[in-house]
Design goal:
mainly alpha
Length: 193
């Protein structure tokens, strides 16, 4: 049995080494997850009218962009405040009103939700507007990266409105796509992702 296992492991390692050489030469080896995902998406959307499918694909791009932006802002807040205030940054720095609302949302999710997503990260339960509130409350920690509180608030207020449209499956016009992309480009130039 041991020699069979050793034999199998050796063949697997040899296959992987050969596969890497083939990939390096531009040859496809193994399953193509991109093609599989595309096919699954096409199958899921197939029953719907073409106009709705096309709109959904355009909105999916926006959703992905906003998701990444919001997640990166949460990460920025956590990293900056943890770096400046230590492991107990949550207790020390988050405004009480915001902290209470976030902790209530987290508790409801833990008690009542059948969803299995992450329930441990408090900051993931913040509303979009809370992120700006936390940054403004700890302005000294962020003022070296963000031009002004007005700059921050203006972008977050407008992005929040667009985010809520997207979250409630309302279609945005191309001009709104451009506005969102412009604000996110501003953020990337100023703060980075």
């Amino acid at each position: 049995m041991t020699s069979q296992l050793t034999d199998w492991l050796f063949r697997a390692m040899m296959f992987e080494a050969d596969a890497e050489r083939f990939r390096g030469a531009g040859l496809r080896v193994g399953a193509n997850t991109d093609e599989a995902e595309t096919q699954l998406l096409e199958e899921a959307l197939a029953p719907f009218p073409l106009r709705l499918r096309n709109e959904s694909l355009r909105m999916a791009r926006l959703y992905s962009t906003i998701y990444c932006f919001e997640s990166s802002v949460r990460q920025l807040i956590q990293e900056k405040l943890e770096e400046n205030h230590g492991a107990d940054w949550w207790e020390k720095t988050v405004p009480n009103k915001v902290k209470t609302q976030i902790e209530e949302r987290q508790q409801k999710a833990v008690e009542n939700s059948w969803l299995e997503g992450d329930k441990g990260n408090k900051l993931s339960f913040s509303q979009f507007g809370h992120l700006a509130d936390i940054i403004i409350a700890r302005w000294d920690d962020f003022s070296d990266q963000i031009p002004s509180q007005h700059w921050l608030k203006q972008r977050f207020d407008e992005l929040e409105q667009a985010r809520n449209f997207i979250a409630h499956n309302r279609f945005l016009l191309p001009s709104e796509f451009r506005r969102i992309e412009l604000y996110l480009a501003d953020w990337d130039r100023q703060i980075g992702f």
